[in-house]
Amino acid sequence: MKTLKLFAVLVVAVMVSAFTIKADGGGYKIGDIATDFNLENIDGKMVSLSDYKDAKGFIVIFTCNTCPYAVAYEDRIEALNKKYAKKGYPVIGIMPNDTDIKPGDNMESMQARAKAKGFTFPYLMDKGQEIYPKYGATKTPHVYVLEKTKKGNVVKYIGAIDDNYKDAKDVKIKYVENAVDALLKGNSIEVDQTRAIGCSIKTKS
Amino acid sequence: MKRLLLIFFIGVLSCKNDASKVVNDFSTTASKEAVVLDPQSKIDLKVYDYDGLEPLINKTDNKVHVVNFWATWCAPCIKELPYFEEVNQKYKDKNVEVLLVSLDFPRQYDSKLKPFIEKNDIQSEVVALDDTDMNRWVALVNENWTGAIPATIIYNNKKRQFYERSFTQKELETELEQFIN
Protein backbone atom coordinates (compact mmCIF):
# COMPACT_ATOMS: atom_id res chain seq x y z
CA MET A 1 0.00 0.00 0.00
CA LYS A 2 2.81 2.35 0.95
CA THR A 3 4.63 1.70 -2.30
CA LEU A 4 1.41 2.30 -4.18
CA LYS A 5 1.04 5.68 -2.48
CA LEU A 6 4.63 6.50 -3.21
CA PHE A 7 4.11 5.49 -6.82
CA ALA A 8 1.05 7.73 -7.08
CA VAL A 9 2.98 10.67 -5.66
CA LEU A 10 5.76 9.97 -8.11
CA VAL A 11 3.36 9.86 -11.07
CA VAL A 12 1.81 13.16 -10.05
CA ALA A 13 5.26 14.71 -9.57
CA VAL A 14 6.36 13.57 -13.02
CA MET A 15 3.15 14.87 -14.59
CA VAL A 16 3.47 18.24 -12.90
CA SER A 17 7.10 18.63 -13.88
CA ALA A 18 6.28 17.58 -17.44
CA PHE A 19 3.71 20.36 -17.63
CA THR A 20 6.06 22.89 -16.11
CA ILE A 21 8.74 22.07 -18.62
CA LYS A 22 6.25 22.39 -21.43
CA ALA A 23 5.02 25.72 -20.12
CA ASP A 24 8.28 27.62 -20.13
CA GLY A 25 10.52 25.39 -22.23
CA GLY A 26 8.89 26.13 -25.58
CA GLY A 27 10.82 27.87 -28.30
CA TYR A 28 14.44 28.48 -29.10
CA LYS A 29 17.36 29.03 -26.82
CA ILE A 30 20.63 30.68 -27.76
CA GLY A 31 22.53 28.34 -30.07
CA ASP A 32 19.47 26.55 -31.48
CA ILE A 33 18.91 26.34 -35.23
CA ALA A 34 15.90 28.47 -36.20
CA THR A 35 13.40 27.15 -38.69
CA ASP A 36 12.96 28.75 -42.08
CA PHE A 37 9.44 29.64 -43.21
CA ASN A 38 7.48 30.59 -46.27
CA LEU A 39 5.14 33.43 -45.33
CA GLU A 40 3.16 35.98 -47.32
CA ASN A 41 4.55 39.49 -47.47
CA ILE A 42 2.43 42.65 -47.73
CA ASP A 43 3.18 42.74 -51.49
CA GLY A 44 1.56 39.31 -51.95
CA LYS A 45 4.87 37.50 -52.52
CA MET A 46 6.02 34.61 -50.38
CA VAL A 47 9.23 35.16 -48.39
CA SER A 48 11.69 32.63 -46.93
CA LEU A 49 15.01 33.17 -45.20
CA SER A 50 16.57 30.97 -47.90
CA ASP A 51 15.66 33.65 -50.47
CA TYR A 52 18.41 35.84 -49.01
CA LYS A 53 21.42 34.25 -50.65
CA ASP A 54 23.86 36.99 -49.63
CA ALA A 55 22.64 37.53 -46.07
CA LYS A 56 25.01 36.87 -43.19
CA GLY A 57 22.07 36.56 -40.86
CA PHE A 58 18.72 38.06 -39.95
CA ILE A 59 17.00 40.30 -37.47
CA VAL A 60 13.66 38.51 -37.14
CA ILE A 61 11.14 40.69 -35.28
CA PHE A 62 7.68 39.50 -34.26
CA THR A 63 5.68 42.70 -34.32
CA CYS A 64 2.24 44.04 -35.17
CA ASN A 65 0.16 47.17 -35.78
CA THR A 66 -1.99 47.10 -32.66
CA CYS A 67 0.42 46.79 -29.74
CA PRO A 68 1.51 50.16 -28.30
CA TYR A 69 5.00 48.81 -27.59
CA ALA A 70 5.32 47.58 -31.18
CA VAL A 71 4.09 50.96 -32.43
CA ALA A 72 6.59 52.74 -30.19
CA TYR A 73 9.36 50.75 -31.88
CA GLU A 74 8.20 51.06 -35.53
CA ASP A 75 10.68 53.77 -36.51
CA ARG A 76 13.50 52.01 -34.69
CA ILE A 77 12.71 48.73 -36.49
CA GLU A 78 12.84 50.54 -39.83
CA ALA A 79 16.12 52.19 -38.80
CA LEU A 80 17.59 48.77 -37.95
CA ASN A 81 16.78 47.55 -41.46
CA LYS A 82 18.25 50.69 -43.06
CA LYS A 83 21.46 50.26 -41.10
CA TYR A 84 21.94 46.50 -41.21
CA ALA A 85 20.32 45.17 -44.42
CA LYS A 86 23.29 46.45 -46.42
CA LYS A 87 25.67 44.89 -43.92
CA GLY A 88 24.07 41.51 -44.42
CA TYR A 89 21.53 41.49 -41.58
CA PRO A 90 18.11 42.44 -42.98
CA VAL A 91 15.08 42.88 -40.71
CA ILE A 92 12.31 40.34 -41.28
CA GLY A 93 9.06 41.48 -39.64
CA ILE A 94 6.50 38.81 -38.80
CA MET A 95 2.97 39.60 -37.57
CA PRO A 96 1.95 36.67 -35.33
CA ASN A 97 -1.55 37.62 -34.09
CA ASP A 98 -4.81 35.90 -35.01
CA THR A 99 -6.49 38.55 -37.15
CA ASP A 100 -10.00 37.38 -36.18
CA ILE A 101 -9.16 38.60 -32.68
CA LYS A 102 -7.10 41.58 -33.84
CA PRO A 103 -8.64 42.79 -37.13
CA GLY A 104 -6.32 45.79 -36.88
CA ASP A 105 -3.50 43.39 -37.74
CA ASN A 106 -5.03 41.96 -40.91
CA MET A 107 -3.23 42.05 -44.24
CA GLU A 108 -4.87 45.28 -45.40
CA SER A 109 -3.98 47.00 -42.13
CA MET A 110 -0.41 45.69 -42.34
CA GLN A 111 -0.13 47.04 -45.88
CA ALA A 112 -1.53 50.41 -44.82
CA ARG A 113 0.77 50.66 -41.80
CA ALA A 114 3.86 49.67 -43.81
CA LYS A 115 3.01 52.26 -46.46
CA ALA A 116 2.35 55.01 -43.92
CA LYS A 117 5.60 54.32 -42.08
CA GLY A 118 7.63 53.59 -45.21
CA PHE A 119 8.77 50.13 -44.12
CA THR A 120 11.56 48.84 -46.35
CA PHE A 121 11.69 45.41 -44.68
CA PRO A 122 9.35 42.51 -45.46
CA TYR A 123 6.33 42.50 -43.15
CA LEU A 124 5.04 38.95 -43.18
CA MET A 125 1.85 37.38 -41.89
CA ASP A 126 2.25 34.25 -39.75
CA LYS A 127 -0.92 32.86 -41.24
CA GLY A 128 -1.96 29.74 -39.36
CA GLN A 129 0.25 30.87 -36.45
CA GLU A 130 2.73 28.02 -36.91
CA ILE A 131 6.01 29.93 -36.91
CA TYR A 132 5.92 32.06 -33.74
CA PRO A 133 5.44 29.05 -31.39
CA LYS A 134 8.47 27.35 -32.95
CA TYR A 135 10.57 30.41 -32.15
CA GLY A 136 8.94 30.71 -28.76
CA ALA A 137 7.83 34.30 -29.23
CA THR A 138 5.31 35.28 -26.55
CA LYS A 139 4.75 38.93 -27.29
CA THR A 140 5.20 41.82 -29.67
CA PRO A 141 7.78 43.11 -30.22
CA HIS A 142 10.04 40.08 -29.72
CA VAL A 143 13.40 39.92 -31.52
CA TYR A 144 15.50 36.95 -32.66
CA VAL A 145 18.90 37.69 -34.20
CA LEU A 146 20.03 34.77 -36.35
CA GLU A 147 23.47 34.07 -37.78
CA LYS A 148 23.63 32.14 -41.03
CA THR A 149 26.03 29.19 -40.76
CA LYS A 150 26.59 25.93 -42.64
CA LYS A 151 24.40 24.21 -40.03
CA GLY A 152 21.56 26.65 -40.53
CA ASN A 153 20.40 29.93 -39.01
CA VAL A 154 21.69 29.91 -35.45
CA VAL A 155 19.85 31.89 -32.76
CA LYS A 156 22.31 34.42 -31.33
CA TYR A 157 20.14 36.93 -29.49
CA ILE A 158 16.61 36.87 -28.07
CA GLY A 159 14.73 39.77 -26.54
CA ALA A 160 14.17 43.50 -26.73
CA ILE A 161 15.41 46.08 -29.23
CA ASP A 162 16.86 48.43 -26.63
CA ASP A 163 16.41 49.54 -23.04
CA ASN A 164 13.93 52.40 -23.42
CA TYR A 165 10.56 51.84 -25.13
CA LYS A 166 9.39 55.36 -24.33
CA ASP A 167 11.93 57.43 -26.18
CA ALA A 168 14.64 56.45 -28.66
CA LYS A 169 16.63 59.49 -27.53
CA ASP A 170 16.89 58.17 -23.97
CA VAL A 171 18.17 54.74 -24.96
CA LYS A 172 21.35 53.78 -23.14
CA ILE A 173 21.86 50.23 -24.43
CA LYS A 174 20.98 49.19 -27.98
CA TYR A 175 20.73 45.44 -27.39
CA VAL A 176 20.04 44.38 -30.99
CA GLU A 177 22.61 46.71 -32.55
CA ASN A 178 25.24 45.54 -30.07
CA ALA A 179 24.44 41.92 -30.89
CA VAL A 180 24.61 42.40 -34.67
CA ASP A 181 27.76 44.57 -34.42
CA ALA A 182 29.42 41.81 -32.40
CA LEU A 183 28.44 39.19 -34.99
CA LEU A 184 29.76 41.38 -37.82
CA LYS A 185 33.08 41.72 -36.02
CA GLY A 186 33.19 38.04 -35.13
CA ASN A 187 33.04 38.84 -31.42
CA SER A 188 30.90 37.14 -28.84
CA ILE A 189 27.68 38.88 -27.86
CA GLU A 190 27.88 40.42 -24.42
CA VAL A 191 24.14 40.48 -23.63
CA ASP A 192 22.40 37.76 -25.63
CA GLN A 193 19.05 37.68 -23.83
CA THR A 194 16.91 40.51 -22.52
CA ARG A 195 13.34 40.92 -21.34
CA ALA A 196 10.74 43.55 -21.93
CA ILE A 197 7.03 44.04 -21.49
CA GLY A 198 5.03 43.41 -24.63
CA CYS A 199 1.55 42.52 -25.80
CA SER A 200 0.78 38.83 -25.58
CA ILE A 201 0.40 37.21 -29.00
CA LYS A 202 -3.30 36.80 -29.68
CA THR A 203 -4.69 33.31 -30.27
CA LYS A 204 -8.17 31.84 -30.24
CA SER A 205 -7.70 29.16 -27.59
CA MET B 1 -19.33 9.94 -35.00
CA LYS B 2 -20.36 12.76 -37.26
CA ARG B 3 -23.16 13.68 -34.92
CA LEU B 4 -20.76 13.65 -32.01
CA LEU B 5 -18.47 15.99 -33.86
CA LEU B 6 -21.38 18.28 -34.62
CA ILE B 7 -22.40 18.38 -30.97
CA PHE B 8 -18.82 19.11 -30.01
CA PHE B 9 -18.65 21.87 -32.59
CA ILE B 10 -21.83 23.49 -31.36
CA GLY B 11 -20.45 23.23 -27.86
CA VAL B 12 -17.31 25.07 -28.91
CA LEU B 13 -19.32 27.73 -30.68
CA SER B 14 -21.52 28.42 -27.70
CA CYS B 15 -18.49 28.67 -25.46
CA LYS B 16 -17.10 31.32 -27.75
CA ASN B 17 -20.31 33.30 -27.59
CA ASP B 18 -20.13 33.28 -23.82
CA ALA B 19 -16.59 34.52 -23.99
CA SER B 20 -17.40 37.35 -26.33
CA LYS B 21 -20.16 38.53 -24.02
CA VAL B 22 -17.69 38.81 -21.19
CA VAL B 23 -15.44 40.96 -23.35
CA ASN B 24 -18.10 43.62 -23.34
CA ASP B 25 -18.28 43.78 -19.58
CA PHE B 26 -15.63 46.44 -19.36
CA SER B 27 -15.58 49.02 -22.08
CA THR B 28 -12.33 50.17 -23.60
CA THR B 29 -13.85 53.28 -25.05
CA ALA B 30 -12.28 55.42 -22.38
CA SER B 31 -10.50 57.41 -25.07
CA LYS B 32 -13.82 58.93 -26.16
CA GLU B 33 -14.36 60.34 -22.72
CA ALA B 34 -10.80 61.50 -22.56
CA VAL B 35 -11.53 64.49 -24.73
CA VAL B 36 -14.00 65.91 -22.26
CA LEU B 37 -12.19 64.70 -19.18
CA ASP B 38 -11.84 67.10 -16.35
CA PRO B 39 -8.09 67.51 -15.91
CA GLN B 40 -8.71 67.73 -12.17
CA SER B 41 -9.52 64.04 -12.04
CA LYS B 42 -10.51 62.79 -8.61
CA ILE B 43 -8.22 59.82 -9.10
CA ASP B 44 -5.01 60.14 -7.18
CA LEU B 45 -2.82 57.78 -9.18
CA LYS B 46 0.32 56.64 -7.47
CA VAL B 47 3.19 56.13 -9.90
CA TYR B 48 6.24 54.07 -8.98
CA ASP B 49 9.49 52.91 -10.49
CA TYR B 50 10.32 49.28 -9.77
CA ASP B 51 12.15 50.01 -6.54
CA GLY B 52 9.10 51.90 -5.34
CA LEU B 53 6.76 49.10 -6.34
CA GLU B 54 8.90 46.32 -4.93
CA PRO B 55 7.65 46.51 -1.31
CA LEU B 56 4.04 46.62 -2.55
CA ILE B 57 4.37 43.27 -4.28
CA ASN B 58 6.38 41.65 -1.49
CA LYS B 59 4.30 42.34 1.60
CA THR B 60 4.91 40.16 4.62
CA ASP B 61 1.58 40.64 6.39
CA ASN B 62 -0.95 37.88 6.98
CA LYS B 63 -2.99 38.59 3.89
CA VAL B 64 -3.26 36.82 0.56
CA HIS B 65 -2.16 39.23 -2.16
CA VAL B 66 -3.27 39.13 -5.78
CA VAL B 67 -1.17 41.36 -8.03
CA ASN B 68 -2.20 41.79 -11.66
CA PHE B 69 -0.06 43.51 -14.31
CA TRP B 70 -2.29 45.07 -16.94
CA ALA B 71 -2.87 48.07 -19.21
CA THR B 72 -5.96 49.73 -20.69
CA TRP B 73 -4.72 48.92 -24.20
CA CYS B 74 -4.31 45.21 -23.41
CA ALA B 75 -7.53 43.48 -24.54
CA PRO B 76 -7.06 40.19 -22.64
CA CYS B 77 -6.23 42.23 -19.51
CA ILE B 78 -9.46 44.21 -19.80
CA LYS B 79 -11.37 41.00 -20.33
CA GLU B 80 -10.15 39.48 -17.05
CA LEU B 81 -10.17 42.67 -14.97
CA PRO B 82 -13.80 42.14 -13.81
CA TYR B 83 -12.72 38.77 -12.37
CA PHE B 84 -10.10 40.49 -10.24
CA GLU B 85 -12.68 43.03 -9.16
CA GLU B 86 -15.06 40.22 -8.29
CA VAL B 87 -12.38 38.42 -6.31
CA ASN B 88 -11.55 41.66 -4.48
CA GLN B 89 -15.17 41.94 -3.33
CA LYS B 90 -15.93 38.29 -2.72
CA TYR B 91 -12.80 37.48 -0.70
CA LYS B 92 -12.43 40.74 1.16
CA ASP B 93 -13.37 39.20 4.48
CA LYS B 94 -11.06 36.27 3.77
CA ASN B 95 -8.06 38.56 4.05
CA VAL B 96 -7.47 38.87 0.31
CA GLU B 97 -6.13 42.08 -1.23
CA VAL B 98 -6.01 42.85 -4.94
CA LEU B 99 -3.47 45.25 -6.44
CA LEU B 100 -3.76 46.24 -10.10
CA VAL B 101 -0.40 47.41 -11.49
CA SER B 102 -0.97 49.41 -14.66
CA LEU B 103 1.69 49.46 -17.36
CA ASP B 104 -0.04 52.17 -19.33
CA PHE B 105 2.29 54.72 -20.89
CA PRO B 106 2.71 57.82 -18.67
CA ARG B 107 1.39 60.12 -21.40
CA GLN B 108 -1.90 58.19 -21.22
CA TYR B 109 -2.40 58.31 -17.45
CA ASP B 110 -4.73 61.29 -17.76
CA SER B 111 -6.24 60.52 -21.16
CA LYS B 112 -6.81 56.76 -20.80
CA LEU B 113 -6.00 55.21 -17.44
CA LYS B 114 -7.75 57.57 -15.02
CA PRO B 115 -10.92 57.80 -17.17
CA PHE B 116 -10.95 54.00 -17.37
CA ILE B 117 -10.70 53.65 -13.58
CA GLU B 118 -13.51 56.17 -13.11
CA LYS B 119 -15.78 54.88 -15.83
CA ASN B 120 -15.59 51.28 -14.65
CA ASP B 121 -15.62 52.27 -11.00
CA ILE B 122 -12.63 50.08 -10.19
CA GLN B 123 -12.62 49.24 -6.49
CA SER B 124 -9.30 47.39 -6.25
CA GLU B 125 -6.23 49.50 -5.62
CA VAL B 126 -4.61 50.69 -8.86
CA VAL B 127 -1.02 51.89 -9.09
CA ALA B 128 1.08 52.64 -12.16
CA LEU B 129 4.56 51.31 -12.83
CA ASP B 130 6.76 53.62 -14.88
CA ASP B 131 10.22 52.14 -15.27
CA THR B 132 11.87 51.91 -18.67
CA ASP B 133 14.60 49.47 -17.65
CA MET B 134 12.33 46.51 -18.25
CA ASN B 135 15.19 44.07 -18.72
CA ARG B 136 16.03 44.67 -15.08
CA TRP B 137 12.66 44.62 -13.38
CA VAL B 138 10.74 42.02 -15.42
CA ALA B 139 13.18 39.39 -14.15
CA LEU B 140 12.95 40.78 -10.62
CA VAL B 141 9.16 40.40 -10.62
CA ASN B 142 9.63 36.79 -11.67
CA GLU B 143 12.54 35.05 -13.35
CA ASN B 144 10.20 33.07 -15.62
CA TRP B 145 8.32 36.11 -16.92
CA THR B 146 9.00 36.67 -20.65
CA GLY B 147 7.27 40.06 -20.38
CA ALA B 148 3.88 39.39 -21.94
CA ILE B 149 0.82 40.80 -20.17
CA PRO B 150 -1.53 39.97 -18.57
CA ALA B 151 0.57 38.51 -15.78
CA THR B 152 -0.43 37.80 -12.19
CA ILE B 153 1.21 37.00 -8.86
CA ILE B 154 -0.66 35.39 -5.98
CA TYR B 155 1.26 35.24 -2.71
CA ASN B 156 1.08 35.11 1.04
CA ASN B 157 3.86 34.89 3.59
CA LYS B 158 4.23 31.15 2.90
CA LYS B 159 4.19 30.79 -0.86
CA ARG B 160 4.22 32.70 -4.07
CA GLN B 161 2.95 31.77 -7.53
CA PHE B 162 3.48 33.58 -10.83
CA TYR B 163 1.17 33.28 -13.84
CA GLU B 164 1.97 34.59 -17.33
CA ARG B 165 -1.51 33.89 -18.67
CA SER B 166 -5.13 34.97 -18.74
CA PHE B 167 -7.73 33.72 -16.26
CA THR B 168 -11.41 32.93 -16.29
CA GLN B 169 -13.27 33.81 -13.10
CA LYS B 170 -13.30 30.15 -12.09
CA GLU B 171 -9.62 29.61 -12.83
CA LEU B 172 -8.66 32.67 -10.82
CA GLU B 173 -10.74 31.56 -7.84
CA THR B 174 -9.36 28.01 -8.04
CA GLU B 175 -5.82 29.38 -7.87
CA LEU B 176 -6.70 31.79 -5.09
CA GLU B 177 -8.41 29.10 -2.99
CA GLN B 178 -5.05 27.32 -2.72
CA PHE B 179 -3.76 30.27 -0.73
CA ILE B 180 -6.73 30.56 1.59
CA ASN B 181 -6.65 28.34 4.62
Question: What would you note in describing this structure?
Answer:
The complex is a heterodimer of chains A (205) and B (181). Chain A is an alpha+beta fold and 205 residues long. Chain A is built from five helices and ten strands, in the order αββββαβαβαβββαβ. In chain A, a hairpin with a 4-residue loop joins β2 and β3 (46-47). Chain A starts with a helix and ends in a 5-residue tail after the last strand. The model of chain A is unreliable at 14-24 (pLDDT under 50). With 181 residues, chain B is α/β, with parallel strands linked by helices. Chain B has one domain: Glutaredoxin, CATH 3.40.30.10. Chain B is 41% helix and 18% strand. A six-stranded mixed sheet of chain B has the order 1-4-3-2-6-7. In chain B, α5 (109-119) links the parallel β3 (96-102) and β4. At the A-B interface, β10 of A face α6 and β5 of B.
Task: Looking at this protein, list some descriptive labels.
heterodimer; A: alpha+beta; Glutaredoxin; 5 helices; 10 strands; 20% strand; B: alpha/beta
What is the helix tally of chain A?
5
Q: How far apart, in Å, are the first and last alpha carbons of chain A?
A: 41 Å
General shape of chain A: globular
Radius of gyration of chain A (CA) equals 19 Å
Q: State the name of the first-level CATH class of chain B.
A: Alpha Beta
* Computed structural class of chain B: alpha/beta
The level of helicity of chain B is 40-55%
The average pLDDT value of chain A, as a whole number, equals 91
Order of helices and strands of chain A: HEEEEHEHEHEEEHE
Number of strands of chain B: 7
Low-confidence stretches of chain B: 5-24, 27-37
